[in-house]
TrEMBL record:
GO terms for molecular function: cadmium ion sensor activity; DNA binding; DNA-binding transcription factor activity; lead ion binding. It comes from Rhodococcus oxybenzonivorans. PANTHER family: HTH-TYPE TRANSCRIPTIONAL REGULATOR CMTR (PTHR39168:SF2), TRANSCRIPTIONAL REGULATOR-RELATED (PTHR39168). Gene3D superfamilies: Winged helix-like DNA-binding domain superfamily/Winged helix DNA-binding domain. SUPFAM superfamilies: Winged helix' DNA-binding domain (SSF46785). This is Transcriptional regulator.
Length: 114
């Protein structure tokens, strides 16, 4: 019987959190904006086109996933990626997704994959 190693479980959990973060278009837009520069919630909400409350909920999720951090600046907080490697990983994923032939991925209504 094959048993998963501790490293495999930890890596799987980390990838699942990253996948969960990217599974929502608002969270994806937040991560894509933060990959180029830190941002403030009010500005991010305006750029993405959501309410501040919705943005706040998504930022809390991304903090919980360990992908973004809040840096206090007086009475407000600046948000940035928790690690610069997250931005590089996003760049790599974008390049990979753009290179994949979309005809190989079933449509969302066929099995929910893409």
């Amino acid at each position: 019987m094959y048993r998963l190693g501790v490293d495999t479980l930890v890596h799987g959990d980390a990838l699942a959190r990253f996948g969960y973060a990217l599974s929502d278009s608002t969270r994806t837009q937040i991560l894509l904006r933060l990959r180029t520069a830190p941002g403030y919630p009010s500005e991010l909400a305006e750029q993405i086109g959501v309410s501040r409350q919705i943005l706040s909920n998504h930022l809390a999720c991304l903090r919980g996933c360990g992908l973004v951090v809040a840096v206090p600046e007086g009475r407000r907080a600046r948000y940035e990626l928790a690690d610069p490697r997250i931005g590089r990983a996003l760049d790599d994923l974008i390049g990979l997704v753009l290179a994949v032939d979309p005809s190989h991925c079933p449509t969302a209504d066929s099995d929910g994959c893409c």
